[in-house]
Model the fold of this input.
Amino acid sequence: MKICRYDDQRIGLVHDDAVRDVTAVVEELGSFRYPLPRYDPFIANLQSLKPKLEAAARTGKAIPLDRVKLLAPVANPGKIIAAPVNYAKHLQEALADKGIHHGNLVNEIHKAGMFLKATSAVVGPGEGVKLVHTDRRNDHEVELALVIGRTAKNVNAAAALDYIAGYCIGLDMTIRGPEERSLRKSPDSYCVLGPWLATPDEVGDPGSLQVSITVNGEPRQDASTSDLILGVGELIAWGSSFYTLHPGDVILTGTPQGVGPVKPGDTMHARIDRIGAMQVRVS
Done:
């Protein structure tokens, strides 16, 4: 199942090149009073909603994908946890390129740890990236993103995949400079998630996916998640040893070698096997 959010907060199931509206099913979630939950209610209830989503899609009108504005597939992530330098070749390029490390100490992930991006940075591919501090280098970093489906704390890596609601493509946009990662990676629109949420049955083994991005048709990054230093299960286990993970939380698994700058007017085209592809404009 591939689930998207689009246009004016509509929910759809994606099949081939069309979206079928299933928004009415979301009404079954009910309403929420203050204080609001710390999790995404739709993601938390996704397993029980699946049969109703499939039934609604059979009668829903098909809308061509190229006629909708794709939003981030998760509306309310409680937190976004990111894994820096989680590909060995990216660590090598970061150490070699002053434009990337900017004089900062660059450690491999076991020493660097994970970091948080602001949830206010999240946008969908149809919304695009709006660069800030354009006097500095702004880079693309394409990544496999996973979305937590149920509450997880101190999860064993061997069981971690059972806690995943689905996967999407993530763009961890980055301003280069001397400040801490979280600041430079958290401006509005610097976390693109999309094009939809692909459930685990669609994706299979997350450790064997090809991840790539082009900018204006020029190949930039192209690698396999088999090259991750810490795999998906290990990242969930490590993250859940520090934080309680809630439904809708997102983990960005790290970017491979080939990161590079973008500028206003550029178009990024990102793809991950068995998930899909998304086009994102830069302004």
In short: Helices lie at 41-44, 46-59, 88-96, 98-101, 109-112, 181-184, 200-203, 232-242.
